[in-house]
Amino acid sequence: MKNCGAIFDIDKKTEEIKKLEDKTLADNFWLDNEKAQEIIRQLNAVKEWTEAWGECKALLDDIKILYELYDEDEGAD
């Protein structure tokens, strides 16, 4: 699937999740509570976005399959 710039770049979003998760594993992560909470908020937002993207992509794939089945059925008549 073609990317529509960085906003829809799922690979970049996945990489961002990995980087944020790595930050949460640092020994000193919770020393700055506000910064830690901001990182957690960012992580949750990116995860939520990628999950929604995955759901949309799955629905689109289903629609494509249904259309192909419909198109084949119409061609059989």
Name some characteristics of this structure.
single chain, 77 residues, mainly alpha, 2 helices
Largest sheet, in brief, is: none
User: How many distinct beta strands?
Assistant: 0
Report the order of strands and helices. Answer: HH
Radius of gyration based on Cα positions: 19 Å
Secondary structural class: mainly alpha
- Percent of residues in helices comes to over 70%
- Beta-strand proportion: under 5%
Q: How far is it from the N-terminal to the C-terminal residue, by CA? A: 33 Å
- Rounded average pLDDT: 91
How many helices? The count is 2
Stretches where pLDDT is under 50 for at least 5 consecutive residues are: none
Shape: rod-shaped
Question: How is the topology of this model organized?
Answer:
Elements: H1 10-24, H2 33-76
Structural overview:
- There is one protein chain.
- This protein is mostly helical and 77 residues long.
- The protein has a domain at 42-77.
- 77% of the residues lie in helices and 0% in strands.
- The protein has two helices and no strands.
- The longest helix has 44 residues, at 33-76.
- It is rod-shaped and about 70 Å long.
- The model has no long low-confidence stretch (mean pLDDT 91).
